[in-house]
Specification:
Two copies of one chain form a homodimer. The first copy, chain A, is of the alpha/beta class. Chain A folds into two domains: 119 residues, Rossmann fold, CATH 3.40.50; 161 residues, Dihydrodipicolinate Reductase, domain 2 (2-Layer Sandwich). In chain A, helix 4 packs parallel to helix 5. The first copy, chain A, is globular. Chains A and B meet through strand 7, strand 8, strand 9, strand 10 and strand 11 of A and strand 7, strand 8, strand 9, strand 10 and strand 11 of B. Chains A, B: Its EC number is 1.1.1.179, 1.3.1.20. Chains A, B: This is Trans-1,2-dihydrobenzene-1,2-diol dehydrogenase. Chains A, B: It catalyses: (1R,2R)-1,2-dihydrobenzene-1,2-diol + NADP(+) = catechol + NADPH + H(+); D-xylose + NADP(+) = D-xylono-1,5-lactone + NADPH + H(+).
């Protein structure tokens, strides 16, 4: 069974996803079959050798040319576009954050489940070989009991529309903070019992920086420092009672971590013919491999990035936003 | 004018201070003249070649053999012992924290000022050549505007009486957290407008870990992670709009920092004949050099570690303690 991908939008992240996919040598039995974008889909298709082109998402969703859609749209469109593809019997890999808030995410996941279709939030970090290796280290017990996680993520994107405008779903926690939240959740694997946020907003009422403290049972905690104003050192550290591991920059899809004995562990990414928009985007291919695997096993969610995980992330993002006073119009709406 | 030091207590930190002093080649015109301790002062004097020995603090305070006292006692005794020496006309260098709370610190400082005697809290970090070098880097403007400071300090001392017992002035923020607070204040040089603390207590009602967020004007912040349960990576990072500096372990008296261009800057400490109890204690000599300098200039406080700075630290320590629900008996008392 060949898995046929449809790419939705011809933006920066879609470019990186397709580039990562096309340049990866062992991607198994899957192909990129089609692309749909409102503007210039032909250019994108030509650049990436994609045979079928649509200038509307609906046309792609209704076509019989694809099995699974990759949604690279802006945050406010994730819910509607994902639903459109699910309605038309397509599996969905949707960029993070899955939705704008918890109610939307819950509704979308319920819809996919009812349709018995695969749905995954594109938290590509979870499929990083480095992450899988550090999980192994932690499980080996070398660190002792893991008590503390710290993540820093600072990128100077405060003037980028996607980040700064509320109508575009702008928000630091929704754009980059999500990487720090998912890291904490990846390590602690349970819902925190308390969230404390300190941060600041821009003139559009959108959070431009924050520090988030997640408290877990057993006096364990995660401290997440997020900033869209400047570059930080962008590492993550996991501290246990017997040692600690540091994941090097960029922690959100790293090639290097420093083990507790000081050993430098390397997981280099594959080379690509085209340049990327974002750092280490070659790693985007690993989530495609996961989708292929899940679809072949008949799963409707990935065990490594489950629906429950997406719901916990949605809840945490919403809590952080509300603690800072960031509200979207959809926060007042109900979803089926 | 020779500055004659009297050492008060023969404990671990006094040992390190005297060892650092004795083994430093260029300590100028100052000597260690006497020691006072309740138990085994002779052993301490013999080990460190100190000519005069007292078995009571009062006898040392009333003697004419010293000009300045170094107070290495436990936290609850700082106020009384410092006052005893000031009453008897001696200058005082007192271990940090200066006092148990703000009222005590204010009272002690007022007392020293009235007596026109020198008083300094032994925040030895402030005299580190590494700190002075990073201050120069920051002032050069290379980092741009400094917006964020992060410090981690974790040391497995949760079972040590000094830390865990309230009657001994136990508290993580008072024992190791102070190093993180003073670092933030060293960089931002003004009082934070808001303090947010998340942490946990032991069965004696003493804080054993915390994360402290200090918010400064202009959307700047410091995040301080303190833990007495396990070792952390014990670095400090200063992030500006154009770059960042990392101070290596142990950040509280470092020998190395990583400049914003990646250059490794080294400031090695002098070698000592005797071993130390604490890391990099050789650096304790620099505060003695500062005291000598101040006394020769007729100052009653150090410009690098002023009374005002001690009061801000006392206020911050108290705020953190209160946010976590840690109370000392002296918190209910008034001081003259």
């Amino acid at each position: 069974m060949t898995i046929r991908w449809g790419i939705v939008t011809a933006g920066k992240i879609s470019h990186d996803f397709v580039n990562a996919f096309n340049s990866y040598p062992n991607k198994g039995d899957q192909v990129i079959a089609a692309v749909a974008a409102r503007t210039k889909p032909e250019e994108f298709a030509k650049l990436h050798n994609i045979p079928i082109v649509f200038d509307s998402y609906k046309a792609l969703a209704e076509s019989n040319e694809i099995d699974v859609a990759y949604i690279g749209a802006l945050n406010p469109d994730h819910y509607n576009i994902s639903k459109l593809f699910l309605e038309n019997g397509k599996h969905v890999l949707c960029e993070k954050p899955l939705c704008l808030n918890y109610k939307q995410a819950e509704s979308l996941i319920r819809f996919a489940k009812n349709k018995k279709l695969f749905l995954m939030e594109a938290v590509w970090s979870r499929f990083s070989p480095t992450y899988i290796a550090i999980e192994k280290e932690i499980n080996s017990g070398k660190l002792g009991d893991v008590m503390f996680v710290e993540v820093n993520f600072g990128v100077p994107i405060v003037t980028v529309d996607r980040l700064r405008k509320k109508e575009l779903g702008g928000s630091s926690v929704m754009d980059i903070g999500i990487y720090t939240l998912q890291f904490a959740q990846y390590i602690f694997k349970e819902e925190p019992k308390k969230v404390t946020t300190v941060g600041g907003l821009n003139e559009d009422g959108v959070d431009i920086y924050e520090t988030i403290i997640l408290e877990y049972d057993g006096d364990r905690r995660a401290v997440l420092n997020v900033d869209s104003r400047f570059k930080m050192w962008n590492k993550a550290t996991v501290v246990g009672t017997n040692g600690h591991i540091t994941i090097e920059d960029p922690f959100h899809f790293p090639e290097i971590f420093i083990n507790t004995d000081g050993t430098v562990e390397k997981f280099p990414l594959h080379k690509s013919s085209l340049p990327y928009n974002f750092r280490n985007s070659a790693g985007l291919v690993y989530q495609a491999l996961e989708v292929e695997k899940c679809l072949k096993e008949g799963l409707i969610e990935s065990p490594r990035m489950s629906h429950k995980e997406s719901l916990v992330l949605a809840k945490l993002e919403q809590t952080v936003r509300k603690q800072l006073g960031v509200y979207y119009d959809v926060d007042d709406q109900e979803f089926p």
